[in-house]
Write a structure and sequence with these properties.
Blueprint: E1 3-11, H1 18-27, E2 34-40, H2 47-54, E3 59-62, H3 69-79, E4 82-88, E5 92-93, H4 99-108, E6 112-116, E7 119-120, E8 126-127, E9 130-131, H5 136-143, H6 146-156, H7 161-166, H8 170-179, E10 192-194, E11 197-198, E12 202-206, H9 207-213, H10 226-236, E13 240-244, E14 249-251, H11 263-280, H12 285-307
Parallel strand pairs: 1-2, 1-4, 2-3, 6-13, 7-14
Antiparallel strand pairs: 4-12, 5-14, 6-12, 7-8, 9-11, 10-13
Domain Glycosyltransferase 2-like: 6-125
Pfam family, one: Glycos_transf_2
Protein name: Glycosyltransferase family 2 protein
Amino acid sequence: MKTDISIVIVTYNSQEFIRRCLTSVLENRPRRSHRIVVVDNASSDETASIVRAEFPQVELVCLPENVGFGRGNNAGFEHAPARFYYCHNADAYLQANVLDPAIDLFDADPKLGVVGLPLVFPDFSPQTSAYSASTPLKWALQGLGIGALVKKLVEGNPEGLAARVLGKHRLGRTFVATHAEGGSTDIEQPPAEDVDWVCGAAMIIRDAAIEEVGHAFDPDIFMYGEDEELCLRASRNGWKVKKANVTPVIHEFGWGKSVKASRKVVDLKFDGLRVFIDKTYRDRPISRLAMHAMLRMKYMTWKARSAG
């Protein structure tokens, strides 16, 4: 019989984080039946040794090569079949038992396919964990720097006109929910809210949804874009995607570091998003071309920053 939930943590040279990560998971484990699985992507550091020696209650799967985030999670799902799978980043830390109330949301709605958990930085400032879908309009606005301006307006006045107007539209609702710091947006916070997609750093997926949509994370995407692709594919097949309003998960996400993204990471990000665009917009050629053009401009900016 399947366990209720498998907690899957994909690692790659994660020795800096893995002790705190696993300790937080063990201290805040769900009451439901569960398994905790670390899938190590052929780390060259001590990640696997730390898990093996210090966390005997955690199942360790060592892959012979680095297969990326999505395929690593898929390997964890195959290793520990469950009704639900919780993807938890190696540089993320639970603060409370949020998995039981999150699974309650699934039990209450049989068409709920994916749930994302809220994220914060280590200083507890808000971190975006749910998003509207990537579209030519959204990427164009991002390219114009609108996000930084809106963030300043919302953070400075969470009760103001900008927050209220944006909170009424899907494109801005998740942005306001993240940056208004608890301010009212005309609607009291429900247990969960509908979103287009959620961050894979803290994401729960129903196994029945995976079976219906064909596969979990797209194996053609090494990293970047795989979480959005999965959520949008689930939505197209009639599954709901929501963000749970529970105690946030702390996520490092490069917090407090001045290290630039390497050229390799930049290239992987470009490749992942290129595959995402081709698959998501395969039936909308004009939008696909526009997205590829904007991705190319993003890539040039990323390359310049990595070399600067």
